[in-house]
Amino acid sequence: MAATTLSLLPRSTEAQVDPAAFGDVQATPKGAIGLGLVGAELGLIIPSVSGLNEVWALTVFPVVGAAGGALAGYFALDKPGREKGSVAVLVVGIAGVLPAVLVTVKGVRKERQERWEPTPQIQIRSEKEQQAFELAEAGSGLMRRTRSGVRASMPDVSVSLRTPETDETLRLGGLRQRREVRLSLFSGVF
Residue 31's closest CA among 76, 66, 1? Predict the structure, then answer.
């Protein structure tokens, strides 16, 4: 569809492009946006890594960091005559969004998990007992994700007979039995 549309457009026989237009880059507001993103990312990462995982900290610090970064980006990179580096700062700011969110989520999750996760009541004495405990904790799948890695083990197989009691089977005057076999393939601790 795009090729058809482009082929129907009228074409000029002579391309009129000003070579000087390619060398002139307008910086505004690339520097302000880029450093604003970097400031917001630092406002997320620093509190979560330092253990300050309260809601107010994870909202106030990124906003303050974004405002400070945007002001610094405007005065350092977007003023006329200072266009160098604004595109690079914008690229760095955009590229850092996902790692900043992942580091923050990991820091918050780890801290909350340590605070709320119950400690096991079983006293483990040997490495073999530790492995058996982790395997049992990970569930009944063929492939089990334990706290120390992925392990393969004998899967849980269950067989059951079910008799559906729907109006249709009762109207027909007979009960049908259905056999069901379940095999657990994946389980684990996440």
Answer: 76
